[in-house]
Amino acid sequence: MGVAIDIRGAEKRYVGRKGETIALDAVDLAIEEGEFVAFVGPSGCGKSTLLNMISGIIDISLGTITQDGEAVRGINRRVGYMTQADSVLPWRTVADNVALPLEYRGVPRAERARRVSAMLEMVNLTGFAHAFPKELSGGMRKRVALAQMLVYEPKTLLMDEPFGALDAQLKLVMQAELLKIWQEQHKTIVFVTHDLHEAIALASRVVVFSGRPGRIKHIENVPIPYPRDVFKARFLPEFEQAYDRLWRELAPEIEHGEEM
Ligand SMILES: Nc1ncnc2c1ncn2[C@@H]1O[C@H](COP(=O)(O)OP(=O)(O)OP(=O)(O)O)[C@@H](O)[C@H]1O
């Protein structure tokens, strides 16, 4: 197993009307192939900025990010990205939404149909191929977004609070499904969340960012073996210990809020 994503001295400065904002400062992190890493930190510490830089949507100001040994320049085609707002189009059916990334890549129609139906089966949406997004529940929409991200088989998944809007029970169901997919398909996952329980239940490492400018403050290895049961994991003593350590690191950052 090698390094999937290598972040070295990463810095991001935004220049706006009010002057310059240092969103991220001197971030060093190597994410191994097949790892599940969670990012936590106060609002505005640059978590989304870092995902955007890994995906190549925005440029890095200083430092380097490499994916599979190659510097990320421009859109990074090796990652699948699920942002907070899902990209499900209301005028397309579920199947046509899932097919979208394959259409962009010029995959022929027959192969598209085959891959879309396999993907819908994987996310338990087979009976909804011809439904429109407005006919779906919140959880089903998330599954469409998940299928859309997975359909072109990226090795690395970037997920920015993908389950943030779901109720607690549905969140657990989606977490369990994601862990299953991660284990079956040997993906590398970088997962941003505000929910410490979610970070510990899913990730092998939890990275805590400080308030702005975002720096890595602490990295916690979660000593809970896989396969994990997200429903039961939180009752393990290892979970509670990890939670205590992480909360001690995170709480002061949240209390200080953003440095204005
Ligand atoms: N395009 C931009 N122009 C100027 N400043 C920006 C821009 N995008 C983000 N910022 C600033 O950079 C900082 C980091 O933002 P970012 O969205 O990455 O944080 P975050 O940790 O993902 O926050 P949240 O948890 O609230 O989603 C914030 O202070 C934000 O205001």
Automatic annotation (TrEMBL):
GO terms for molecular function: ATP binding; ATP hydrolysis activity. InterPro entries: AAA+_ATPase, ABC_transporter-like_ATP-bd, ABC_transporter-like_CS, ABC_transporter_ATP-bind, P-loop_NTPase. Keywords: ATP-binding, Nucleotide-binding, Transport. SMART domains: AAA (SM00382). It comes from the Bacteria. CDD domains: ABC_NrtD_SsuB_transporters. SUPFAM superfamilies: P-loop containing nucleoside triphosphate hydrolases. Residues 7-236 form the ABC transporter domain. Belongs to the ABC transporter superfamily. This is ABC transporter ATP-binding protein. It comes from Acuticoccus sediminis.
